Amino acid sequence: MRAMMLSAPATIATSPLVSIDRPMPEPGAGEVRVRVRACGACRTDLHVIEGELSQRRLPLIPGHQVVGTVDALGPGAKRFGIGDRIGIAWLRSTCGH
Fold it and tell me: Per the confidence metrics, is the pTM higher than 0.90?
């Protein structure tokens, strides 16, 4: 799969994102894999790319507002089915309360 990766913060004008090939991830227990159809990059992403906000680790693949379709299910994943349209917000997980 193709992704845009940031190795080091730099101004957008210098084109710090590089297109790379990544292995296709396999979903873990209770997870789904999503074929991304659209992914938004917000102003916070731009702040991180330009080094105005610190990042937890490098390299990083920016973008976190995703819409796509489920194309693989991990063991025990039951909430969504193959082909379901899904949206993903910036939160990876919450406590549910």
Answer: no
